[in-house]
């Protein structure tokens, strides 16, 4: 699982850098305020479409692996945090002697960082794609020659409104909303488990003499009739 995670992180990092490169190039075109040709923007749009197709192919190929990694990380982090809370409540925490507690804490932190890393990387790619569309639209509006405005490919690009969205087998989108929902779900389950754990009866309780008399079952009353 770790090797797959590192491979995914490397691939999506490269994809993010490519999106960043074409976005910065388009931003430089706007800042320079030169006579923009339709050929330059057409090449940038072609690069953008190729990056979108590459992202979709990577997502489709690793969709099942992403779902498995996120599910495993969520279960591990949830169980580690729950066990740590139980140990803290029981007063059995001894960091100098109990290395299992330290390992659970490290596992919980690593799991949370993995979830955050996935959300950050996917959100960054989507934001860069949105920035490219915004800059291209701005460049089209500021073009005085109207060459970009009358470009059929660029017009088709805005008509299609192609967005960069990643998902895990189509079940949920991969962005910071996923991180928030996973944290909210884990918090809800932890609160429920802690509350149910506190409702267990205390086995050490023994009735006092006064309460023992009240707990005795009364004898049935005998009804007699006079002849």
What's the topology here?
Layout: H1 2-32, H2 38-61, H3 63-90, H4 99-142, H5 152-160, H6 176-198, H7 209-215
Helix pairs in contact: 1-2, 1-4, 3-4, 3-6, 4-6
Spell out the key features of this protein.
mainly alpha, 7TM_chemorcpt, 227 residues
Short description:
The chain is mainly alpha-helical. It contains seven helices and no strands.
Report the sheet with the most strands, covering strand number, pairing sense and barrel closure.
none
Shape: elongated
Determine the number of helices (DSSP H or I, runs of at least 4 residues).
7
Spatial gap, N to C terminus: 90 Å
Radius of gyration over all CA atoms, rounded: 31 Å
Structural class: mainly alpha
Low-confidence stretches: none
Number of β-strand runs:
0
- Helix % is over 70%
Please report which band the strand proportion falls in: under 5%, 5-15%, 15-25%, 25-35%, 35-45% or over 45%.
Answer: under 5%
Q: What is the mean predicted local confidence, pLDDT?
A: 75
Helix and strand sequence: HHHHHHH
Main location: membrane
InterPro entries: 7TM_chemorcpt (IPR013604)
Protein name: Gustatory receptor
Membrane topology: Multi-pass membrane protein
Account of the 3D structure:
- Residues 205-227 have a biased composition (Polar residues).
- Residues 204-227 are annotated as: Disordered.
- Pfam families: 7tm_7.
- The chain crosses the membrane at residues 66-87, 99-118.
- This is Gustatory receptor.
- By secondary structure, the protein is mostly helical.
- Helix content is 73%, strand content 0%.
- The protein is built from seven helices and no strands.
- The chain is elongated, with a radius of gyration of 31 Å.
- The N and C termini lie far apart (90 Å).
- The model has no long low-confidence stretch (mean pLDDT 75).
């Amino acid at each position: 699982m770790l090797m797959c995670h590192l491979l995914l992180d490397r691939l999506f990092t490269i994809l993010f850098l490519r999106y960043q490169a074409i976005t910065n190039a388009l931003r430089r075109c706007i800042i320079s305020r030169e006579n923009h040709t339709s050929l330059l923007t057409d090449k940038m749009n072609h690069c953008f479409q190729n990056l979108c197709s590459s992202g979709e192919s990577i997502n489709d190929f690793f969709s099942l692996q992403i779902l498995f990694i996120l599910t495993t990380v969520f279960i591990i982090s949830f169980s580690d945090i729950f066990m740590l809370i139980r140990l803290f409540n029981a007063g059995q925490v001894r960091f100098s002697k109990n290395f299992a507690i330290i390992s659970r804490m490290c596992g919980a932190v690593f799991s949370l960082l993995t979830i955050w890393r996935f959300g950050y990387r996917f959100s960054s790619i989507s934001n860069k794609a949105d920035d490219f569309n915004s800059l291209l639209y701005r460049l089209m509006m500021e073009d005085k020659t109207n060459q970009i405005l009358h470009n059929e490919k660029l017009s088709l690009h805005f008509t299609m409104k192609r967005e960069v969205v990643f998902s895990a087998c189509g079940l949920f989108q991969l962005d910071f909303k996923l991180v928030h929902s996973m944290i909210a779900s884990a918090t809800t389950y932890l609160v429920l488990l802690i509350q149910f754990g506190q409702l267990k009866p205390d086995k050490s309780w023994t009735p006092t003499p006064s309460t023992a008399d009240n707990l005795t079952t009364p004898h049935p009353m005998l009804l007699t009739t006079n002849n």
